[in-house]
Amino acid sequence: MAQTRRQFLQQVGITGGAGVMYSAMGAIGLAGVAETPAYAAPTRMELNGRGKHVVILGAGIAGLTSAYELGKAGYKVTLLEARKRPGGRNWTVRGGTEEKDLHGNTQRAKFSSGQYMNAGPARIPQHHVTLDYCRELGVAIEPFVNQNADAYLYREGTTALSSKPIRHRTAKADVYGYVSELLAKATDQGALDSALTATDKDALITFLRSFGSIGTKEEGFKYTGTSGRRGYEVEPGAGLEGGTTAAPYGLSDVLASGVGNYFSFEFGWDQAMMMFQPVGGMDRIPYAFEQAIGREKIQYGAQVLGLRNTTEGVTVTYSTGSRPRELKADYAICTLPPHIAATIPSNLPTDIVGALQYARPTNAGKIGIEYSRRWWELDHRIYGGITNSNLDLVNMWYPSTGFHSDRGTMIGYYNTGANATAYGALTPAARLERALAQGAKIHGDVYTKDVKAAFSVDWAGTEHSRAAWVGWTSQTDGVYAKLLDATGNIYFAGDHLSHAIAWQHGAMVSARATVTALHTRVTSR
Amino acid sequence: MAQTRRQFLQQVGITGGAGVMYSAMGAIGLAGVAETPAYAAPTRMELNGRGKHVVILGAGIAGLTSAYELGKAGYKVTLLEARKRPGGRNWTVRGGTEEKDLHGNTQRAKFSSGQYMNAGPARIPQHHVTLDYCRELGVAIEPFVNQNADAYLYREGTTALSSKPIRHRTAKADVYGYVSELLAKATDQGALDSALTATDKDALITFLRSFGSIGTKEEGFKYTGTSGRRGYEVEPGAGLEGGTTAAPYGLSDVLASGVGNYFSFEFGWDQAMMMFQPVGGMDRIPYAFEQAIGREKIQYGAQVLGLRNTTEGVTVTYSTGSRPRELKADYAICTLPPHIAATIPSNLPTDIVGALQYARPTNAGKIGIEYSRRWWELDHRIYGGITNSNLDLVNMWYPSTGFHSDRGTMIGYYNTGANATAYGALTPAARLERALAQGAKIHGDVYTKDVKAAFSVDWAGTEHSRAAWVGWTSQTDGVYAKLLDATGNIYFAGDHLSHAIAWQHGAMVSARATVTALHTRVTSR
Question: Are B301 and B110 in contact (CB under 8 A)?
Answer without folding.
Answer: no
